[in-house]
Design goal:
The protein has about 200 residues and is mainly α. The chain contains 5 helices and no strands. The protein has one domain: lithium bound rotor ring of v- atpase (Four Helix Bundle (Hemerythrin (Met), subunit A), Up-down Bundle). The longest helix has about 45 residues. It is elongated, with a radius of gyration of 24 Å.
Length: about 200
């Protein structure tokens, strides 16, 4: 594959991160929204005022779409510099997007229960928000470990080049001369024979 194809696959991972996160947000917001409408209906039937604060719960799952956009921008920025690592970008985008989708969906389910509870009792707003906050922290770990995976992948690349080329750390070494990427051959593998210890 040429560099344009590698970059396209990397961008596919970026789009997957945002798209899957948006699907989860839609499912979560829809679930919480239905519960909020039901709680308002009960309040109107009883002659009570509808709690506007239920919209906080309805909007909670939308945060994962923002997280997906952040991960998408991160992948797009990194892939421009090293498109040969397309598999890492694609994997982080897809599996990261699935994680965000699941997080948003189940945060929405928790938000639906919070709507029912707050609508009936009018109490416990802070407690319910704390529960939703715990669900939101899943993406913090996801984004952190996703970046760590990419950084570790790049670190292993550099160490591998030094090790197999025989160049001692801290000294320059010759790059592999290929028409597409100076570090990888056409299939994304290292061309160790083109690397040598500097004279």
């Amino acid at each position: 594959m040429d560099q344009a194809q590698l970059l396209t696959l990397a961008k596919l991972g970026a789009v997957a991160a945002l798209g899957l996160a948006a699907v989860g947000s839609a499912l979560g917001c829809g679930t919480a929204g239905m519960a909020a409408i039901g709680a308002w209906k009960k309040a109107y039937l009883k002659g009570k005022n509808a709690l506007f604060t239920l919209l906080i719960f309805v909007g909670a799952p939308i945060a994962q779409t923002i997280y997906g956009m952040l991960l998408m921008m991160y992948i797009l920025n990194k892939s421009q510099a090293a498109p040969a690592n397309w598999a890492a970008y694609l994997g982080v985008g897809i599996f990261g997007g699935i994680g965000m989708m699941a997080s948003a969906w189940y945060v929405g389910k928790s938000a639906a229960d919070a709507c029912n509870a707050l609508g009936e009792t009018g109490k416990g707003l802070v407690n319910y928000l704390m529960v939703l906050g715990v669900g939101e922290t899943g993406f913090v770990f996801l984004l952190g470990f996703g970046k760590f995976f990419y950084l570790w992948h790049s670190y292993v690349d550099v160490v591998g080049v030094y090790f197999f080329a025989g160049a001692p750390p801290g000294q320059p070494f010759y790059k592999a001369k290929t028409p597409r990427n100076p570090w990888h051959d056409a299939y994304g593998h290292y061309t160790w024979t083109a690397c040598a210890r500097p004279a």
